[in-house]
Fold:
Amino acid sequence: METRVSAVVRPYRDRDLAALLQLWARIERAQSDTDLLTVDDGMDLLHVNGSICVVADDEGSISGLALGMAAGAIGWILRVVVAPEDSESDLTRRLLDELETRLTEIGVRKLIALVVHTKTIHAQLNERGYAEAGNALCMERSVPTSMAAPSALAELGGRIVEPGLWESLKGLKDAKEIIERRVILPLAEPQLAARHAVSSPSAVVLFGPPGTGKTTFAKGIASRVGWPFVEIRPSQLAAEGPERQAELLSQTFDRIFDLPSAVVFVDEVEDLASKRDEDRRVNTSVTNEFLKQIPRFHDVPHHLLTCATNWVSRLDPAFLRPGRFDYVLPVGPPDLEARASIWRRYVEEITNEKIDIDALVGASEFFTPADIEFAARKAAQRAFEREHFEGASNRAVMEEFLAAIEETRPTLSAAVVEEFNADTSRFARY
Ligand SMILES: Nc1ncnc2c1ncn2[C@@H]1O[C@H](COP(=O)(O)OP(=O)(O)OP(=O)(O)O)[C@@H](O)[C@H]1O
Ligand SMILES: [Mg+2]
Structure:
């Protein structure tokens, strides 16, 4: 077996979370059979008392993990994951070595492995003296939601965003670059960042016209860092009395800060922080509670607040100030190149006919990504109906795309773009 000298096996640290979830999700997708522990289960377990996780650190990227748990004198080995490219190496053995050592150090006297049956893991366990427990039976059942207390993340409506979303975001080059350099880099290079007293931001505001991708961008950040995405909607508290609203909001934040990490998203933040009281859709006590919570993001690592608005000029200037938000980022209309790649994405999905992408781009000036999606779906519907009613059996053609564009009212206009550009020079800060 080949030994990759570069991988160091060491205990898991909080900031490995993103890389670890990504590795786990990659393996999970690659496996056809179902796993005992899903990525979500793993994430829950990582932060439970008594759980022990060791990782293989391959020059900063995580190429393997072993997760176990001590319950009194019994040590459970629950998951051993190694990147496919390392499956032939001795990484599995080294991970098991480290995990067993750590479990026995805290008093474990018997080890039980409950892992997905692969050739490597079976051979490794045999080699270390594990034997099949003849009568043991492994079965699983999910507790029905009616019986189960939801996990902290589920209770908050949070979820893990699929890893590829960030890469699939088209355009938005500047905004993406800022996130790569100022959020991701300090997390990936903590020592270097500390040396220069650089810390990653804790709160950002995204602004731009409707449908330009603010929500998608916030989810994209979550997918890039690998932290769960949690959206809070203060306006949903409206049914409660004013005092109770503030209290509920504060409890929600307490629970969010108990999570190991999170990208917290607040959409339509003008409902909370408009200059004029009458433009707000929540009680003042809720606004005040929200303002009180923002600085906490500076103190709790691995939590990023992302607020979005279509109306940055309506926000109270005090709300936007640097002490509260590190950056105010424009998320603007897609340029030609971005429109072309968004069109390409839908065209590839909808048809195999020859489509002139440049012509679609030309015909869809002032379209947001959301408008493009709308028009593309319209074209698909047209083709579907044509085949159903008229029997012509080809997928959507150029004329159908053009007709769909014709029928779609663009969200943007010269005036909207001009206002966005003016807002950008007035409010953008990064
Ligand atoms: N940069 C992008 N690249 C590809 N697709 C995108 C991009 N931005 C947005 N989309 C798609 O456009 C649609 C609208 O995006 P999204 O909901 O994120 O916009 P928004 O700015 O949050 O809108 P609103 O202001 O109405 O809340 C989504 O279906 C999303 O997948
Ligand atoms: Mg949105």
Q: What stands out?
A: Residues 336-406 form a domain with the Helicase, Ruva Protein; domain 3 fold (CATH 1.10.8.60). The chain has three domains: 7-134, 159-332, 336-406. The chain is about 45% helix and 15% strand. The chain has a mean pLDDT of 88.
